[in-house]
Design brief:
Shape: globular
Strand order of the largest sheet: 1-2-3-4-5-8-9
Largest sheet: 7 strands, parallel
Radius of gyration: 17 Å
Bound molecules: phosphoenolpyruvate, manganese (II) ion
Oligomer: single chain
Helix content: 25-40%
Structural class: alpha/beta
Distance between the termini: 17 Å
Order of helices and strands: HEHEHEHEHEEEHEHHEH
Strand content: 5-15%
Length: about 240
């Protein structure tokens, strides 16, 4: 889905498109953890209104919803709408938030902090378990590493973490090539690599006019690229004994 939910028509359009191409969950941000504090006409979050748009689009398409909660005070509000709640990278060790999510009754998508190893990540997952929630999916979204492929590159995908996590944990692990690469030109190849390495799923940012996306315009995929990628992934999944 989109990074931030921009309006009802946008969300509806993306949802119906990605569903037709084989997506099984709709992810969109109503609350966003943004790197810089400036909110504007071009970088915004819709909050409760965004959640209402999500409910409407779920009713229309049947796609379950994944959305992020950034604030412990909003867990109940977000849990009322979401079918799965995302914990963003920056909140991976926000322990009061994890405790509240332990009690929320909804599955949690736990992103890995870009500076943490497996021990801290699985420790965070155990907070959810310890407080009553065993519906946890891990999400690798890139770690900080100095590299110079692009001036805007901030993260690099840790593909090796997929088999490494498997040796410690039964939890499903999905990859987020969009935030990890921060650049759409790297997203298809890294998506293919992730599925080849055994990832259980991907989160991909998709937008009808990617360069005009309100948030994260550098990384969103066009419909055309998304569709082509889904075709590739179907073939790769088959090779590793999975289905899309
Ligand atoms: C996101 O998924 O929208 C996001 C901001 O990702 P991360 O927390 O991984 O930076
Ligand atoms: Mn984003």
């Amino acid at each position: 889905g989109p990074c931030t939910i921009e309006n009802l028509d946008q969300l509806r359009d993306i949802a119906s498109h990605v569903k037709d191409s084989g997506a099984v969950l709709l992810r969109g941000g109503a609350y966003k953890p943004m790197t810089f504090p400036y909110r504007s006409k071009t970088a915004f979050e819709l909050g409760e209104e965004g959640l209402a748009f999500m409910r409407r689009v779920r009713d229309e398409t049947g796609l379950p919803l994944v959305t992020e909660v950034v604030d412990v005070r909003l867990v109940d509000q977000v849990a009322e709408t979401a079918d799965m709640i995302q914990v963003g990278a920056r909140n991976m060790q926000n322990f009061p938030l994890l405790e509240e999510l332990g009690r929320c009754g909804k599955p949690v998508l736990l992103k890995r902090h870009f500076g943490c190893g497996i021990r801290d990540w699985l420790g965070a997952a155990e907070y959810l378990y310890h407080h009553g929630n065993d519906q946890v999916v891990l999400c690798e979204r890139g770690i900080s590493a100095a590299h110079t492929h692009e001036p805007t590159a901030r993260f690099i995908v840790d593909i090796q973490v997929i088999p490494a996590v498997r040796s410690y944990s039964h939890l499903p692990i999905v990859i987020d090539p969009s935030h990890a690469t921060f650049n759409r030109k790297f997203v298809p190849s890294i998506s293919r690599a992730a599925i080849a390495a055994g990832a259980d799923g991907l989160i991909l940012e998709v937008h009808p006019t990617p360069e005009k996306a309100a948030v994260d315009p550098l990384q969103a995929l066009s419909y055309e690229v998304f569709d082509g990628l889904m075709g590739d992934l179907r073939g790769i999944a088959r090779v590793v004994g999975k289905t899309l």
